[in-house]
Amino acid sequence: MKNKYFLAPLVILLFFQISNCFAQTLFFEELDPSIWISTKRINDSTLKTVQEIQLSKLQHSKESLRQDAMLWSFKSGILTLSEYDSALKTEFIVSKYPYTIDFGKGILSIEIPDDVSLNYKAGITSTETFAVLNRMKEKNKKDGKTSR
Fold this sequence. Notes:
The protein is α+β, with helices and mostly antiparallel strands. It has two helices and ten strands.
């Protein structure tokens, strides 16, 4: 009888590990090319400080958006962040960053100015249409030191 109680936590832990890997795979599988939206305004300085980013995949044209949003366009290794004004139906490019994906580790690395690589791991709730990116410690490309 004790064996059943011992195995239950292991089975639950294994389930969450598999779910997390599956969720990350779904997010990264068709990231390039795709457009995602967030309601949080992002620029160079806020990208350095934000610890969590919630993204929803743009499933229809951006003209169908009813509120202003940040567009995250992933294409050919370049992430383009744009502000979209839903009333005026206009898009303003804020920044462009090179990015890489480590499929094995499930990590999205965004290269920002100042030789810093911001690394994000897809959260357990991430799917093909919704993602929570949790920031990891970044590494300075010049000296290899880690910081947050």
